[in-house]
Amino acid sequence: MAVHPSGFYIHVSKEHLTDAEKVDEAKLLTENEGYDFVLEKGESLVIEEFSDEHSAESFETQVLEILATN
């Protein structure tokens, strides 16, 4: 997670982005929740923008759980 002047962002490294289906599932969840989902050249995933740290941490946990599910 990163803090920017306008809010909190989630950064997910490429190590977590190995399964295209899981990435699509995370994208669907993210967009359904109203957040922006930006896949940066396959290097990382950025989910933006959260108004508070707790919301960002909670959503980051959900996304990482999706990406880690076998």
In brief:
This protein is α+β, with helices and mostly antiparallel strands and 70 residues long.
Task: Please tell me about this protein's structure.
With 70 residues, the protein is α+β, with helices and mostly antiparallel strands. The chain has one domain (2-68). Helix content is 41%, strand content 31%. The protein is built from 2 helices and 4 strands. The chain has helices at residues 20-32, 53-68, and strands at residues 2-4, 7-13, 36-40, 44-50. It has a 4-stranded antiparallel sheet with strand order 1-2-4-3. The protein is globular, with a radius of gyration of 11 Å.
List keywords for this structure.
41% helix, 70 residues, 2 helices, 4-stranded antiparallel β-sheet, alpha+beta, 31% strand
**Distance between the terminal alpha carbons, to the nearest Å?**
24 Å
Task: Round the Cα radius of gyration to an integer and report it.
Answer: 11 Å
What is the total tally of β strands? 4
Give the spatial strand order of the biggest sheet: 1-2-4-3
Largest beta-sheet characterization: 4 strands, antiparallel
Count of helices?
Answer: 2
Helical content, roughly?
40-55%
Can you tell me the overall shape?
globular
Average pLDDT for all residues: 86
Strand-residue fraction? 25-35%
What count of domains describes the coordinates?
A: 1
**SSE pattern:** EEHEEH
Class computed from helices, strands and strand pairing: alpha+beta
Q: Give unreliable regions as ranges.
A: none
Question: What is the secondary structure topology, with strand pairs?
Answer:
Elements: E1 2-4, E2 7-13, H1 20-32, E3 36-40, E4 44-50, H2 53-68
Helix pairs in contact: 1-2
